[in-house]
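Give me structure tokens for this 500-residue protein.
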Amino acid sequence: MRGSVRRVWHVRVVALVGAVALAAPLAVLGGAVSASAATGYVVSATVPVGHGPAGVAVNATTNTVYVTNGSDNTVSVINGATHTVIGTVAVGNNPYGVAVNATTNTVYVTNANDSTMSVINAATNTVTATVAVGTNPTGVAVNAITNTVYVADQDEAKVSVIDGATNTITTIVSVGRGPFGLAVNATTNTVYVMNSWDVTMSVIDGATDTVTLTMGVAGLSYGVAVNAATNTVYVSNYAAATVTVMDGATNTVTATVAPAGAGSPYGVAVDASTNTVYVSDQGGTSGVWVIDGATNTVTAGVRVGANPEFGVAVNASTHTAYEPNQRDNTVSVITPAMTPGAPTAVVATAGDGQASVAFSPPASDGGSAVTRYTVTATDATTPGNGGQTATGTGSPLTVTGLHNGDTYQFSVTATNAVGTGPASTVSNAVTPAATPAIPTPPSPSPTPASPVAVSATTSLAATGSDQALPAGLAGLLLAAGFVVLGAARFRARAKKPHIG
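Here you go.
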């Protein structure tokens, strides 16, 4: 544990709720949280900040986030669009709570160990004033309409009321013991203060700075937030592992939300534009719970960093929540996850009773990884023959069971943990066809042996001559030889004496 903020309230809890109640929260402080049950919200970024981050506030107008770093005595300034630290402001000793007046672009930081509040000009990121307040200040809240700042002075059981225009204390309101978290409904000009040591909540009329009601809460409680649009108050009950829902008009409890697997609900924030509640939880199965304000049901649990702190804030313009993680010196950026976009570049190639369909992933996975693609066939020839599907984790996918001769087109959808996104544009048209049989070629007929031609060269070679004559000359000589031979035989026959 760091700083006087936790040392004070943890020691006094022993006298208030007993050693058993104290042991349960301490057993889970800083413990690792299991995999998230979230399906609709994801951690879209993790931003490194200073050491020991605890409080966080957002200026929705400038989309800027402010985080108190208790061990560094600084405030980290984060660009909400790029999720990068764009400045660091030195403040007092052990800064804890932080609040923003978006109208004046001013940031207020409580410094627990030196009992002061730093006033920061957010345009220049410089400290313009330091206001002395009560001992061990923790929570801080602002009414932007009246430009009034409220600081919970934990050790003095008081709330300091400060004029934001002059940075001076105008009055001090006595409340219950151990005031910690604060929230303001600017519409009704009502302030809610969690008195952690006597397990009560004080309701202050901002017009008269008087306590109009002190009501009991469900055990050790620190965080409080208001949805001004619905006039609903939410209280995080650290020891009871619940969130109390209260009607701000009647100050009566209307519901109690008990997230399954909750550890110690700590801080709480509201997105009034979506009626969504975010609750930081130390040691439960998820670091931040998301509650639907319309139904008072838990819609998601998001795993964040180690030891999520008291501070949790939301930008209602971007619907982005921020949770400081004290042990790993980071801030988790939580955004709603959506279904994936449509896959693109769908191309089909026909086969025999099937088609191979290639495609590209969607431009956006909706903040949650795509787990499955589905290809669906449409038969343009006979619609009743369509509807075949194929599923898989990537491209290409082969759709089978198609009718040869029919013309088909294909569309592709992507699915993530949230659900299935829109279908792609259809592919090119293809017509499956049976693969034609390849004819078997006939066996070749035997080639008759060629007769040996007798040539002059061959004849001469037979005589033992190694001289070859030209073919034409050899033929003439051979013919002449036959003529001479025939003539010689004729003469011989003519000379033979006649015997008679």
